[in-house]
Amino acid sequence: MTQPVLQVSNLRFHYPQSSAELRLDSFILNLGERVFVEAPSGAGKTTLLSLIAGVLQPVSGFIELLGQPFSSLPETKRDYLRGCHIGYIFQQFNLLPELTARENLLLLEVISPDRFRGMSASQRQQQWSQLASALGIGTFLDRPANRLSMGQAQRVAVMRALLGRPALILADEPTSALDADNRDSFLILLEQLCSSQGTALVFVSHDAQLKNRFERQIKLSPMTDTNE
What we know:
Layout: E1 6-13, E2 20-29, E3 34-38, H1 45-52, E4 60-65, H2 75-85, E5 86-89, H3 101-111, H4 121-135, H5 150-162, E6 168-172, H6 180-197, E7 200-205, E8 216-219, E9 224-225
Parallel strand pairs: 3-7, 3-8, 5-6, 6-7
Antiparallel strand pairs: 1-2, 1-4, 2-9
Helix pairs in contact: 3-5, 4-5, 5-6
């Protein structure tokens, strides 16, 4: 049996001095699967992704990443596993504005060198070329990030997330600023790239129109006030 990429069980989380609690009872994601998490305003979309990424720790319950007890590991171990196995597409893309697109991408090898462990220089170059070609970013790689259009910045952010072939991609509403045509084109491309690399995808959005594009759907309820 194939080991799940991600397993969540009885997850509970609330911020200090807050009684609003995020709850997710059970969730398993296998390699190559794509899941859409529909979450209305106030449901804790970004909070959930931060928990899955190991940036936050649950109050109770557990999260496993590739068979590792991810949520209960020391911070340094979580940081290591995140760097190796998780790519993140932020809603605002989080590119360093004064660096070029190319420099933002190369920075990943400095920040998360373990992501590329086991890949030879030629394999890295081959993946770089394949992703750059598929995403159509070759013409603006040397343009500063603060001079990229929204669509261009988005494509750089996707390439950064996929470099090194992580097992899991977390996408935090990456289509929220796109019109319908560009949104659909982007989703098709993201699906193709994840499929070609065998990468699992957790895509979080409030836009219910997108959910039928995904193999599985989960609806995240608004954070519950535990004092009620």
